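User: For a reading group we're discussing how well predicted structures match intuition. Take tRNA threonylcarbamoyladenosine biosynthesis protein TsaE. Before you show the prediction, I'll give you the sequence so everyone sees exactly what went in.
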Amino acid sequence: MQIITHSPEQTEQAGADFAKTLRPGDVVTLDGDLGAGKTAFARGVLRGLGYPGRVTSPTFAIANEYSAPDGTVVHFDLYRILDEEALFELGFEEYLDGTRILLIEWSGNAGGLLPAHHKSVRLTYGEQPDDRLLEIEEIHETTEL
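Assistant: Thanks. Here is the predicted 3D structure of tRNA threonylcarbamoyladenosine biosynthesis protein TsaE, as C-alpha cells, for the group to look at:
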C-alpha cells in the first residue's frame, strides 16, 4: 500500500490509522532517511493505540516503552547500533516475546534479529518539502535450508 502525506500532521495521522491493524506481537520496521518522518509516524501509531502522553525519538535512549490502553509499545531507534552484538547486550531478543508491539527505526541495523514476519513502513521524501511517500507492506521472509 502507498500513502502520500503533505505535512507532518498527515504523516502522524497515517500512523494513527495504521495502528488499527496492530496487535501485541507485531513488529513494525520504520525506515527512511533522517527527517523522513519515522518518529512522526510512530507518534501517530501511539496516538492511534490510545497513548495520550509525549512521544519522543529514542535516539539516545535506544528504546522507549509506552503503556497504551491497547497494549505495551516499545519504540526502538537503532541508528547508533553498529552490530547484532550490541542488540544482544540490550536484551533485544527479550522484546520479541509476542507480548508487545515493536516499532523499530533504522531496522537494517538489527541484522538477522528481525522476525521473518513483520510489517514494513518505508518513508521517502516527496516532490514538495513536507511531502512523504509511505510504502507499507507485510514481509514474509523464508529461510533456505
